[in-house]
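Input/output pair, single chain:
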Amino acid sequence: MNNFLYYIIIIPISNLNNFFLYLVSDVLYLIVGKLLKYRKPLIDKNLKNSFPKKSENEIKNIRKYFYKHFSDLIVESLKGFTISEKGINKKIKLKNTELLNEMAQKKQNIILIGGHYNNWEMSAQKMPLECEHELFAIYKPLSNKFFDKKMKNSREKFGLRMIPMKETKNYFHTDNEKPRAIIFGSDQSPSNTKNAHWIKFLNQESAFLFGAEKYAKEFNWPVVFVSIQKIKRGTYEVSFQLITDQPKKESKGKIINDFANLLQADINQNPPYWLWTHNRWKKIK
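Output:
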């Protein structure tokens, strides 16, 4: 079954040109958004709690465009299996990489922190092509070994290296001649709220993963926020903003607070592009 799904369905879709790829996305939108109404109650709950001043019609409109964007993300994730360097350069544009590369030239390791906003997968996949750091990304391995290997190979094809979540600390202790940048996706709900940091985020008390700040302060690595904007369908622009270059001097929680505020500003600007199907507020303080 794994071979069938991968070689008969995923790879043929992945090899489609943009016209047919997004035609598949349009069909997928009709199925996911119109027919199945995938996780609609959760999406509506998240949106209404996040934007209490928006009207029913505004919430409905955000949900509609979220489903369209979500369908695009699915086919773009499939495209990642076969995309060429030329292809990813057309889809993902990196701005102000000099901020990172100047630190790389000084042999400075850094933490890149971002959220599940716009196409975070393909953006991380592209970064090693223009960034001078050796790039790593934290991930949770899939239970399906076949697809875990295929996904890992896809993500690493341009030089990104994937770190299983349980092995994160080892990579901070490892000596490396080339400066490292480790990518954290820090906007999901923590499995253990005892170690979480609580913030007012999108109008709600929200638990945040604390790992990025914890490691930044322990090892004194500067922290840079990764912002991803959708320029048009299938094209994204990634920019970088320094949160701190002296993490040990920051008060507890400030790094995560600053990250949450920057991410929230991006979401407020274009709400449909965040992952509203995630049960973000399942844990309470």
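Strands lie at 92-94, 110-114, 134-139, 161-164, 180-185, 197-201, 204-208, 223-232, 235-244. Residues 29 and 68 are 6 Å apart (CA to CA).
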